[in-house]
Each structure stands twice: as C-alpha cells, then as structure tokens.
Amino acid sequence: MDIARTVSNPDGTPEMADAARTPAEPTVIKREDYRPFGWLIPEIALDFQLGLEKTRVSAKLTVQRNAKADRTDMLRLNGDGLTPLEVVVDGEVVNSWSMDGEDLMVPLVSDSHLVEIVTEIDPSSNTQLMGLYASNGMLCTQCEAEGFRRITFFPDRPDVLSTYRVRMTGPKDQFPVLLSNGNPGASGENDDGTHWAEWHDPWPKPSYLFALVAGDLVANTDTFTTMSGREVTLNIYVREGDLERTGHAMESLKKSMQWDEEVFGREYDLDIFNIVAVSDFNMGAMENKGLNVFNTKYVLADPDTATDGDFDGVEGVIAHEYFHNWSGNRVTCRDWFQLSLKEGFTVLRDQLFSQDMGSEPVKRIEDVRVLRGIQFPEDSGPLAHPIRPDSYREISNFYTATVYNKGAEVIRMMRTMAGEEAFRKGCDLYFERHDGEAATCEDFVKAIEDGAGLDLTQFRRWYSQAGTPQVSVRMEHDGDAVTLHLKQEVPSTPGQPDKQPMPIPLKLALFDKANGSHRGEELVVLDKEEASVTFTDFADKPVLSLNRGFTAPVSIRQEVSGEDLVFLAAHDDDPFARYEAMQELVVTHLKQACAGELDDDARDAGRKAIGDALAAVLADDTLDDLMRGELLILPTQTYLMEQMEAADPGVIHAERQGLRGWLGKQLEADFIALHGRASDMPYSLDAEARGARKVKTQALIYLAEANPALASKMGAGQYDAADNMTDRQGALMVLAGLQTPERTHKLLDYYNRYKDNALVVDKWFAIQAQSLHPHAIEHVKALADHPQFTLKNPNRVRSLYMAFAANPHAFHAADGEGYRMIADLILELDPINPQTAARFVSPFGRWRRIESGRSALMREQLERIAAAGNLSRDTHEQVIRSLG
Ligand code: ARG
Ligand code: ZN
C-alpha cells in the first residue's frame, strides 16, 4: 500500500481509503471480451531513487500504435493507488491527461511517442506485499499478476511485451546490493553516500515479470555451463546468517538447468541467474526474468532446521521457477485466463523433474494426494472453475490447485496418450512457434496436436469444463470373456449445469488371481458417456487394476470385493495401484462405518482385513521404506469427507482414529520393531535413510493412538536422540496430540532451541495448530497472542491459521468456534493483506457438503463476512462465490 491510498487511524494501523476497497459490485472480467491493446511499448526505461519510505519512479515508455488492434487516440495506463507527479509527452510537460478511476489516460495523436511519467511510492506501508515493498530493511517487488501498476502507470497486462532498462540509486550502506532483471550494466558511486546500478534485460517481457531488489544481502555464487558452452553465473542472495543454508537450493538449481536441457532441450539465455530469498512473501516464489524472488521457506534448508519434505519443497520450487524461464517467460500468456498455460505446464515439468531426481512412484503418490486433498474439494465446491476460467473479478483468486495441479494433470494426460517422444515433439513445436509471444491454451493444444500427431478436438473440453469426472466400472465375466462396462459423469458446477463427455485415458491391467500376474497393460480412452471393452481368454474372473499410475484425474466408482483389494494391495506391480488398493480398502471400510452400516462383528472383520494387509506391508522386504511409508498412511480426513455426501467430521474423526488405534494395538510389536530398526539408521539424505525416517514417525503415529503412554516415551526418546529436523518434528507432532508431560516439555524445548529461526518458529506454531489434541482451538487462541505472532507476515499467518483450518477435527468443532475464529481472522487480515485473507475463505465452501448443523454455522460466518462491507475485491469475490 502506498501513501496516496493510506490514511492512518488514531492507533496507527494502516487502513485503506475508499478507492482501494470494493464498490458493491466489482467489475467482472470475461475471457470472451479479450481485445489486443491499442499500443505497443517496445521499450521501457525505469529510474528508481530508492528509499524505504519514499521511492521515486521515473518511467520512459516508447509507444507505438498497434496495427493489429482497433485504432485509438487514447493511451490507458493502469495504476493502483498512484498519482502522476509529472507527465511528459515527446519532451513536453503536458496536462492533457486525465484519470479514469485508478488509470491514467493520455491522449496521443501520432503513431509513435515517447511518454515519461513520474510517480512516488511508500514501500514501507505496503502491507499487501504487491508492487514494491519493504521486508526486513530490504526492498523487493512482486508484480504478478497486477502489482506493476502499484509502481508506475503502465499497460499492466501480459500481452504487452517490452525490453527493460533499469537504473537505481540508493544509500550504499542500506542497500549495498542492487538487482534487477537481465544482465548487469554499469554501476558507480556518488559523493552523497549513494550508489547506482544499471540492468538491461534484452528479452521482451510483460510487466508482471519485472523485479527489483535492493538490500544488505550476501550471495552463494556458483556457475553453470550450458549445453552450447556458455558460462552462467548463479547467485542465491540471502541475509548474512542464512548463507550456510543455501547449498541445497544451489544444487537443485544446477540439476534443474541440466534436466531442462536434457529432457526438454531448453537452454538458459542470460549471463546471470539470480535468486533472492525474502521472508515476507504471499506465495511460494516468483519467476521474474533472471531474478527469481523466493519465499525463504523454499530456499533455506539444512538437516537441523528442515525436514525431508522441506528439502523436497526447495528442490521442487527452485525447479518450477527455473522452468518458467521457457514455459512462462520466453512464451508467456496472452491474458490471465490463460494462466494454466504457464502454470499447469510448469507444474507438470517440475513434477517430472522431481520424479527423475528421487522415487518416481512415491512422487506420483504425493502429487495425487495433493490433488485429491486440495483440488478435488475445490472442484466439488462453490469455487469450482475450469483450468481455463471464463471470468473473474480478482485474478489473484485464480492461482488455484485447479489451474496449477489439475492443469498439470490435463497436460500429463496428453503426454500419456501421445507417448513421451511424441509429446516432446509437440512441446518443441510449441516453443518454436510461440517463442517471444504471449500465447493461449489453445495455441498449446494445437502445437501438441500438430507436433505429437494427436486429435485433441474433444480433449479441449478439459480446458472448458470444471468438475471431477466420476467413472464407474462394472465387470462382467461370461465364458472366457471379460467385459468392462465403463461410464462417465461430469458433475455440474457453478455456471455449468450440463456437461459433455471428455476423453479419459485409463491405464489398466487384469490380474490372474492364481499366478498373481497380468498379461500387460492396456490404455483405454473412455470418450463417450458409456462404453464397453471386452478381453478374451480369461477362464477365471480376473482382478481389475484401473487408472494405474493415476493416468486420469477422475474418481473411480467400482464394486470391488475387499478380498480383491487385499490381493492388489499385496500383488499389484504398479506401485501407485498398490497404494490405491490399500487406500480403497480403508476408504470403503470407513465409509460403511461412518454410515452406521457395520455392526460390531462387521467392523471387526473390516478392521481385520486392513490389519492383514498392513501386516503384509510391514513384512514385505521387497518394498523400500519410502514406499512402505506411503502404504502406511491412512487416507486423510479431508479425502474421506470428500467421499461422503453430508459428512459428519466428528464421526469420521472418531472412526478413523478408532481404526488407527485398533491397528496400532494389533500390530504393536511390529510397529515397535519397525521404529527400532529405523532408529538405527544414521542420518543421510539418501533414499534409504529418508525412508527410515518416514516409517519411524508413521510407527509412532499408530502407537500414539493405541498406547499413548508408550508412544509418549518413545516420542520423547526420538525427539532427544534426533540429529535432524525430520525426526525431531515427527516426534513433536505426535507428542503435540497427546496429553502427557512430555508434550509440554518438548514443545518448550523446541521453542527455546529455535526461537531465532523464523522458519522453525513457523513449524512450532503449525505443529500445535494441526495437532489432534482435544484443546487445539484453545491453543491456537493463546498462540495468536504470542509475542512472535504477527498478521504482517504471511508465513506466520499461514503457520497458525492455515494449519488450523486444515485440521478438520479442530476447525469443524461442533459448536462452530473454529469457523468463528477463521472468520474473525479474515476480517482482521483483509485490510492488511487481502490476497492472503481471501485464501482463508475456501474452507467455508464445504458448507454445502457437510451435516446440517455445521452447514448452518459455516454459512452464518460467510454471511457475517459478506455483511462487513468495505471488503477487498479479493475477499469479496470469494465470499460471494462461496455463498453462490
Ligand atoms: N508465478 C508464480 C509461480 O511460480 C506465482 C505468483 C503468484 N502471485 C500472485 N500474486 N498470485 O507459480
Ligand atoms: Zn508457477
């Protein structure tokens, strides 16, 4: 937020003036309304006089009529909270300009002009963290999607591409490091204690990829030699004390550069690649050309402070942002409706990279768990939208699991149908055709179609239709023929009552029960509402393994016996399918239990089948521990809720924990033995040691439910013996759910040990907010008053409240206290950081698919937020859609 828009109320907290708040009905932007911009801006030169409280920005734009657009004599430059201090056209100060809302309108009569504009902003009061803002004494930017207009007036849309020259001047002691996009140019010192630096980015880019960083930073520097032999300097900039935690990020960067050359043939294109870590950041990271800005969470890692999961997060996000250099920067998006063009594709690319770096099946399982845990609920709730949305009010609300993760699945399906080689040809064609352009999803599909030789006519529906398709399958065995009757249904979603069938590629295998094997995989593409496929030569009825490797992002309904699931859980040679069978076994049982369909005997029988399968998983020495750990993880409560129409979170929680306790008791000796074996493994980052750490904490989780006293002792032991964060956090997580003295003791020890490390303090907040402890709500309330808690830092807000909102047993407390707490948070956070506040609305979307008591309580809170008035455009849109 900047001066023009900020007024201070008596207690000094910033408040937005009316202009920044939404009018009753903010404009709806529609995809079909796209028109090219009337002007081209081939070059922009920016001059920054930097200061934390006052930064002066002079922008020089070369402006040319766009022959491909409708003729206009008016140049509309977007602004957000800016006042033009000076407007100069072709060297003359003019006052012919006017304001249209937040935008600056400059009349221009000729075909080309030079337009100069001066603005002034206050980075220190920018709590939205969009545009230029201050973080820990440094200055940095976030411009995607529409932050550049908070820095200077400009056509802030992704289809206006310019080359950037940046010059910045600032006090040398305060900002010894001055960075921007592209390659470094001249630099020097002035007599007044300031210094300056110039940067030039030769690659035309849209304004959302602009970045500037000024601060007191140190760098981990390395080099990478590209496939054509150019040496690129690599820097990872952090604050002084953090340097020793940048090694993993640097290794990840070099691996990413190498992999993109080998697998996609993409080479880096500047002399230097800079990454800067900042602690105040709304998202994970940002792919600004040549100057990626990262949340510290995705840069800093060492064994003492980061878990194995954190190491993977760093590797994945470094890769993601680096890969954007081609899928996003060299080829960018025409408009924001095309966001999945760069995000879906780049997520797929980072997933494939991580599959190659570690365990392919385990990575696939993790990605599917995220999809089902976050995207499926989104797709079945009031915020459902196609991966290429048709309209929005605030684009920040569409950086979703649907655009990112389902977007990746959609491209993965094309890859599955085409095969790897043909898919690569399609990608090559896409980059070749559209390099230097702002493209559309349609351009991408067309390039894959032409390059890979596929007909994707019907497949395009995956871009336009929302909702997770339901596929049901029935098997018929007649003589020696097996027929699969497949049926698809795409559920109706907001604004899309009727759906057309989509092509659904399903990899399958038919197992011979007698010899435990199959005759080869088949890829069946279900492209009609109903279809049947027949296989012959099956004297005995085989066992079906369907959607192997999760080839399609659908949910499968099938009548399958517990016996067959046990068979697949033990014998399927596709690790994903094996995991799936194990999950299905548990889901089926818990669904029946929650629906009250099981008497005591039936419940025991169900539990016993699961217990036998789990015992087999524990005993199977062909499994590595990373995979074993996956097979031990029970389906999440969120996923279970998703499987039921009017879910009762209290009942689900009780049944799920009941099952876990039963299994823990039944297999107590095995879990103790597993914990012991895993504890003997010394720390390293290799797969074997990581697997050991994974099953170690899994064992503890089961034991905690079966034998809390024992688990508390073992957990405290694991905590004390830990020489790494994975073990320490795993133990603390289990202890946090118990009501034992060890809980208090270790939580205190952890805080004292790490209180100076913000990322670990975040974990400390999150562990308590996520815990199974019966008083988790009270703990969260108390933590909100902790001296280290602040609403100004998004990581801290998420560590307490996102963790809480994702803790079903606490968030869905029957009296509605959890809902009230999150609604209060939204209202308090909205004026400070609307983008982050709006993210807390989506958990309330569940109100439509939950038992009636909670449904009413959730709705009540949504209505309370809606009635508050003066909401940001971000939060307003999400609340309106959620109530829908
Ligand atoms: N493009 C960034 C990424 O790598 C995310 C930026 C999102 N920014 C925002 N304001 N929503 O995925
Ligand atoms: Zn991205």
UniProtKB/TrEMBL annotation:
All residue ranges annotated as the Peptidase M1 alanyl aminopeptidase C-terminal domain in the record: 563-883
Database matches in Pfam families: DUF3458 (PF11940), DUF3458_C (PF17432), Peptidase_M1 (PF01433), Peptidase_M1_N (PF17900)
Alphabetic keyword roster: Aminopeptidase, Hydrolase, Metal-binding, Metalloprotease, Protease, Zinc
Reactions that this protein is recorded to catalyse: Release of an N-terminal amino acid, Xaa-|-Yaa- from a peptide, amide or arylamide. Xaa is preferably Ala, but may be most amino acids including Pro (slow action). When a terminal hydrophobic residue is followed by a prolyl residue, the two may be released as an intact Xaa-Pro dipeptide
Superkingdom field: Bacteria
Cofactor field: Zn(2+)
Sequence ranges assigned to domain Peptidase M1 alanyl aminopeptidase Ig-like fold in this UniProt record: 467-558
Keyword flag Zinc: yes
Entry EC no(s): 3.4.11.2
GO process terms (BP): proteolysis
Peptidase M1 membrane alanine aminopeptidase domain: residues covered: 249-462
Compositionally biased tracts (Polar residues): 1-11
GO molecular function: alanyl aminopeptidase activity; metallopeptidase activity; zinc ion binding
InterPro entries per the UniProt record, alphabetical: Aminopeptidase_N-like_N, Aminopeptidase_N-like_N_sf, PepN_Ig-like_sf, Peptidase_M1, Peptidase_M1_dom, Peptidase_M1_pepN, Peptidase_M1_pepN_C, Peptidase_M1_pepN_C_sf
Disordered: annotated span: 1-24
CDD domains membership: M1_APN (cd09600)
Keyword Protease: yes
Domain Aminopeptidase N-like N-terminal: 46-209
Listed PANTHER family: PUROMYCIN-SENSITIVE AMINOPEPTIDASE
Family to which the UniProt record says this protein belongs: Belongs to the peptidase M1 family.
NCBIfam families named among the record's database cross-references: pepN_proteo (TIGR02414)
UniProt-recorded name of the protein: Aminopeptidase N
Species this protein is from: Alteraurantiacibacter aquimixticola
Taxonomic classification: Bacteria, Pseudomonadati, Pseudomonadota, Alphaproteobacteria, Sphingomonadales
